[in-house]
Amino acid sequence: MACLGSSSTAGKGQAFDWIAELRQRPGNGQFEFRNFGVGGDLAYNALQRLPDVLACRPGKVIVWVGGNDVLTLVSRKVWRFFTFWKRLPRTPSPDWFHENLAEIARRLKRETAADIGLCSLPPIGEAPDSDDPFQSELNWRIKEYSAIVAAIAHEEYCGYIPLHEALGEAVRASPGRAFTAFNFLPFYRDAFRVLVLRQHPDDVARRNGWLFHTDGVHLNSRAGRIVADCIQKFIEA
Questions:
Q1: pTM above 0.70?
Q2: Which end of the chain, N or C, is surrounded by fewer C-beta atoms within 10 Å?
Q3: For 36-56, what is each residue's pLDDT tens digit?
Q4: Known InterPro entries for this protein (predicted)?
Q5: CATH of the domain at 38
């Protein structure tokens, strides 16, 4: 089983490792899980790395990308950084996201016999009804991009994994903080806490005041197990 995505798939630092969670479940012993998550990747970058996924001849593929695509639209700071770091040839847009994710799905369908699951996007921030401009734009962009994922899954005859719906329902039932601005320093600080100081990501989440995230973007174990449950249903379907 190949898992293609960004830092939320890589599961390092403050991001919950949902692949490790699935790997330890008794019913999944027949699968070899391969992690193709790379921090900061947009759908464009995931498409460039697709040959690595194809080379392992997977029986199932989970694709979870789009959060960074959304952040580049909402935060000019993120857009400038990712354009340089990830060598983006175009300005990110919903159309470009659709183009890249659809091409990932088409190539997987054409070049493998794998069952393919496309994941919609979890919330960024925990305030679904916030009137803060930054959080409000994040909310509707996440919804917009999740609709694109659902449309591609339908168009390309792939499975659809409803992370947006499942986590959105959980956050709406227990709303928390708004994500009101993107600053890189807190993310580096939290990575230092986890990787160097060996603090548990859930302790970092509590210290930061998040209910479902460690930092507003990456998921803690509470939300990460919801992700694992959604993907488990796809595995067993």
A1: yes
A2: C
A3: 999 999 999 999 999 999 999
A4: Ester_Hydrolysis_Enzymes (IPR051532), SGNH_hydro (IPR013830), SGNH_hydro_sf (IPR036514)
A5: 3.40.50.1110
